[in-house]
């Protein structure tokens, strides 16, 4: 279970870092992508984009 939590944390950090680039191609504005504002901080939770990217990766892996 700890591996899944680490994987989700790593994916969230990676997608948050690539937020500017992903928004240019349309990801990050999907239903299920949340932006939480806590004071002056902004936390980006890309749940919808993560599901879409994992589905694409699964299809590519399945095809190969």
Shape: globular
Number of strands: 2
Number of domains: 1
Task: Please state the structural category.
Answer: alpha+beta
Task: Please compute the radius of gyration using only Cα atoms.
Answer: 13 Å
| Largest beta-sheet characterization | 2 strands, antiparallel
Read across the widest sheet, the strand sequence of neighbours is 1-2
- Mean pLDDT, to the nearest integer, reads 80
Helix percentage range = 55-70%
Helix/strand order, N-terminal first: HHEEH
Kindly report how far apart the N and C termini lie: 28 Å
Low-confidence stretches: none
Number of helices: 3
Topology:
Layout: H1 2-17, H2 19-24, E1 33-38, E2 41-46, H3 47-63
Antiparallel strand pairs: 1-2
List keywords for this structure.
two-stranded antiparallel ribbon; alpha+beta; 64 residues; globular; single chain
What would you say this structure looks like, in words?
The protein has 64 residues and is of the alpha+beta class. It has one domain. It is 61% helix and 19% strand. The chain has helices spanning 2-17, 19-24, 47-63, and strands spanning 33-38, 41-46. A two-stranded antiparallel ribbon has the order 1-2. A hairpin with a 2-residue loop joins strand 1 and strand 2.
Compact summary:
The protein has about 60 residues and is an alpha+beta fold. It has helices at about 1-15, 20-25, 45-64; strands spanning about 35-40, 40-45.
């Amino acid at each position: 279970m700890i591996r899944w939590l680490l994987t989700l944390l790593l994916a969230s950090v990676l997608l948050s870092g690539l937020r500017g680039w992903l928004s240019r191609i349309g990801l990050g504005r999907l239903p299920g992508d949340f932006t939480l504002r806590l004071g002056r901080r902004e936390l980006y939770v890309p749940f919808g984009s993560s599901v879409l990217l994992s589905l694409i990766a699964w299809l590519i892996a399945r095809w190969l």
